[in-house]
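lol forgot to send this yesterday, sorry. struct tokens for the thing we talked abt
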């Protein structure tokens, strides 16, 4: 990201975007919605209507003497040019090192490092988001792109909350290339001047949703099973297949019962929670939910209905902040707790106690991610801003094992962590410092190219060589990879959704 004076920016329309292109584009508050507030789902062009002219026109003050001689005019022009050259160069913005932004400074994205960047404004902040699998194919790299998403709101009044399902299409490639780039002709087909399109369907909710997760088996079963953990302590299971069908079938009417949950989990009483995950190996539907009192319940599907185990898994009264099913064993799962522990469980245990408990952090463990491709790797994000990667084979008999990787780049709590499902060495980490960072664990510390870059830029001398990219988004809470579009991420924050892909991944 770059930091520069707002006076250098072109004036743009005000928006509720996480990418700010001018001082006046700061979003309205998320209070009561007025007539002029932005409608739900409004797209914003993150780069505005910027353009460059072939030449520069320098105008003298209209009040200058019209009879100014040529020598004085040339002197005046030279002074203006020198003043313009004295403007500070854009700098890299790093949340824990850079000075706080001044009243006349804004952050703007560098368009040359994003292959795609789109913003969606929503009526209320959303704490969570997930990607819906689609039938458009895997390994998609062409543009314009289409993405199916679901999220849920944190409205100021409970009755205004809703679950929002959307299809975003005509997402054009936004990478800025040099005029003399040899690849321009090849990329012409990927560039589309048409505006992005958003179709959305909403389901009314009575409470804020803490977390939302979609079953990874949706394409296999034809059911888009989507679970939500609500602030009132209940967990709901919806089938969003009718909403998806409405996006792809003109004139299709969604049945009324498709806007109601197909099952409600009340085993947690009125204790809210954040832990929520679908099994990636049990396609009939196996859902784990965890709450602030440390209880974890397993809900499974039978031939006729859903059944929740009455006896919870339990080890501590500390809050269960996150849950992840194993990607290799269908009875194993992991939890993250406010007591600093990561625990490994087996659903076959009659005692409903953890098989392994290890201290992962001296602070809360907020989030965890189980690697899709290497099922003995687990990542954890902590309240002190640090995050680690663990080899589960080292957990046997050790209460304080050593992580295979540990970073403390972020100085604010980690809010989300996720292994790239298509590349086991890439990890996305979001933090309360308003950034999402991308990391490549395969990069060696003594890489010659990295070392050369660090020598050239003083700003990078103490930055971990594994850090690939820093994406700025205000109050970012959740980040998810798109499994069918390599390198594409969706992140949600206080000012809406970002759909983006960097040249780094």
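and heres what i got for the seq, position by position
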């Amino acid at each position: 990201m770059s930091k520069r004076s707002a006076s250098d920016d072109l004036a743009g329309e005000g928006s509720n975007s996480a990418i700010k292109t001018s001082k006046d584009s700061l979003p309205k508050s998320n209070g009561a919605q007025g007539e002029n507030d932005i409608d739900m789902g409004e797209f914003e062009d993150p780069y505005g209507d910027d353009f460059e002219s072939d030449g520069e026109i320098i105008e003298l003050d209209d009040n200058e003497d019209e009879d100014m001689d040529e020598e004085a005019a040339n002197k005046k022009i030279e002074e203006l040019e020198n003043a313009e050259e004295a403007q500070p160069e854009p700098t890299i913005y790093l949340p824990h090192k850079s000075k706080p932004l001044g009243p006349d400074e804004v952050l703007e994205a560098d368009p040359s490092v994003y292959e795609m960047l789109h913003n969606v404004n929503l009526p209320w902040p959303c704490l969570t988001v997930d990607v819906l699998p689609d039938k458009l194919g895997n390994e998609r790299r062409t543009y314009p792109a289409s993405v199916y998403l679901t999220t849920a709101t944190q409205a100021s009044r409970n009755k205004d909350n809703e679950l929002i399902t959307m299809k975003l299409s005509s997402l054009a490639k936004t990478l800025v290339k040099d005029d003399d780039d040899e690849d321009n002709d090849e990329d012409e087909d990927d560039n589309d001047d048409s505006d992005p399109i958003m179709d959305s369907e909403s389901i009314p909710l009575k409470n804020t949703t803490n977390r939302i997760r979609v079953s990874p088996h949706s394409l296999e079963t034809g059911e888009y099973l989507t679970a939500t953990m609500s602030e009132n302590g209940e967990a709901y299971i919806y089938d969003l297949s009718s909403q998806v069908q409405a996006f792809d079938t003109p004139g299709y009417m969604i049945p009324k019962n498709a806007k109601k949950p197909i099952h409600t989990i009340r085993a947690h009483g009125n204790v809210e929670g954040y832990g929520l995950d679908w099994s990636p190996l049990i396609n009939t539907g196996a859902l784990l939910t965890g709450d602030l009192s440390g209880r974890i319940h397993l809900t499974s599907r039978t031939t006729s209905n859903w059944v929740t185990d009455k006896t919870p898994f339990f080890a501590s009264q500390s809050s269960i902040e996150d849950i992840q099913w194993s990607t290799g064993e269908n009875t194993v799962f992991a939890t993250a707790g406010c007591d600093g522990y990561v625990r490994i469980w087996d659903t076959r245990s009659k005692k409903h106690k953890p098989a392994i408990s290890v201290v992962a952090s001296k602070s809360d463990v907020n989030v965890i991610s189980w690697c899709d491709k290497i099922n003995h790797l687990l990542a954890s994000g902590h309240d002190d801003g640090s995050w680690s990667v663990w080899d589960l084979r080292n957990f046997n008999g050790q209460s304080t094992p050593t992580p295979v990787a540990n970073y403390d780049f972020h100085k604010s709590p980690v809010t989300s962590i996720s292994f790239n499902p298509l590349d086991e060495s890439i990890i996305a980490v979001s933090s309360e410092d308003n950034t999402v960072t991308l990391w490549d664990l395969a990069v060696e510390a003594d890489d010659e190219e990295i070392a050369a870059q660090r020598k050239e830029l003083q700003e990078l001398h103490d930055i971990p060589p594994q850090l690939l990219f820093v994406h700025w988004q205000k109050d970012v809470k959740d980040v998810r990879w798109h499994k069918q579009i390599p390198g594409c991420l969706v992140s949600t924050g206080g000012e809406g959704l970002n759909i983006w892909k960097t040249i780094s991944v």
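The helical segments are 70-85, 184-187, 218-221, 241-248, 448-456. anyway ping me if u want another try
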